[in-house]
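Chapter review: from sequence to fold.
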Amino acid sequence: MASGDSQSTGRIAIIGAGYVADLYMSSLCAFPELEVVGVWDRDASRLAHFAAHWSLPALAGFEAVVEARPDIVLNLTNPSSHAAVTREALKAGFHVWSEKPLALDMDEASALAALAQERGLHLASAPCSVLGRAAQTLWRAVREGRVGRPRLVYAELDDDFVSSAPYRRWASASGAPWPAEDEFRTGCTLEHAGYYLSWLMAIFGPVRRVVGGAARCLDEDQTGAGHDAPDYASATLYFDRIVARLTCSIVARHDHRLRIFGDTGILEVDDAWANGAAVRVRRRHLVRRRLVNSPLARRVPWAGDGHPMVGRRGAASMNFALGVAEMMRAIAAGRSPRLAGDFALHLTEASLAMQGGGDHRLVTSFAAMEPMSW
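The token string follows.
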């Protein structure tokens, strides 16, 4: 919680009751100050199951969402519907938290950001793990100079050979199937790059240039065959004072490591999807005439008491409501949410540039983010 923020009750309406909505609900339960006033989904059966499972009011259409008068609309619809639903919510006068991606193209994302600004509203985008304990501890370790000046970052978001996984049997707490078609159609880069992109943006500032390559349907037999989105992308990200390489795939062996290489050692995190992942320092030494990276890594103490933790749900151990809670507190305190506005738009532009491949000089930027006060 930022200095000066207070625990204030906030009203949330959810649009979209699919797989990810259950992850949000289990996380929202960790914040008693947040009240979910209702949920709407165009699939009546899915809506009924979700509302019954979580004991929530099932809203009969967007008009009922408006009548519920939420402080924030939580847009958890399919990616192809994100922009349209966000636009309607903004036009109705509500702040919006959108699941990633904010939109599927930059013109649409820019138009949404402009609409929010015009209406005096906040528009924020997932992911929110940058507000979590692991990311904030890593950031503090960089600020404290634990490895000297950072020079280079390697970040991996490889999720193994997904087409061979039993994903047709994956289901959420209320019984929603894992949305395989949407995942493959949207692509692993737009779905996942933000988990580490947001960390790097918070720590090192805006991305100035993205140079990379992407490949489509390396696994021709996957359910997503024929979709335009790549199942592999790797890019070099140029910040003002550091360079990072970020790779996403659903083909390579599972690997969610992030390593920051500095003058005196390496900062390491093993899992982007765990708020409680350990942050470690591996020192570099001169032994006789050899340069040796220590085989032993020392854990960095947590950055403060942190935030409510949630148990593992599938592949993730993340509190999905950290961003919504921070957004609600920011609105109550009269400040801009950390993940809203320019930050969300820049994250979208960088993710789209990665997925598109080639050489992109980014046109968006954002002001420096404040660390969480804890």
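Two observations follow directly from the output. The CA atoms of residues 281 and 298 lie 5 Å apart. Residues 1-6 have pLDDT under 50 and may be disordered.
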